[in-house]
């Protein structure tokens, strides 16, 4: 699983891919997100929201252009 993550855009800290399972209509649903490992960063409290890890990584790595 490729998880080439950019550092956090807020604090510059290391990012991590997280996974959580929920149940939808009685079936397990995998959920993915990327968050900052720094516990004091605003980007640390992110809940899993993507059904595929590739989408979570792609959105995390997106940056605005100058």
List the helices and strands and how they pair.
Blueprint: E1 15-24, E2 27-36, H1 53-61
Antiparallel strand pairs: 1-2
What report would you give on this structure?
By secondary structure, this protein is of the alpha+beta class. The chain contains 1 helix and 2 strands; from the N terminus they run ββα. Strands 1-2 form a two-stranded antiparallel ribbon.
Mean pLDDT: 87
Total helical segments: 1
Radius of gyration over all CA atoms, rounded: 13 Å
Strand order across the biggest sheet? 1-2
Largest sheet: 2 strands, antiparallel
Q: How does the overall form come out from the CA principal axes?
A: globular
Assess the beta-strand content as a share of residues.
25-35%
End-to-end gap: 30 Å
Give the helix proportion (percent range).
Answer: 10-25%
Structural class: alpha+beta
Q: Report low-confidence residues grouped into runs of 5 or more.
A: none
Q: Please report the total strand number as a whole number.
A: 2
Taken in chain order, the helices and strands follow as EEH
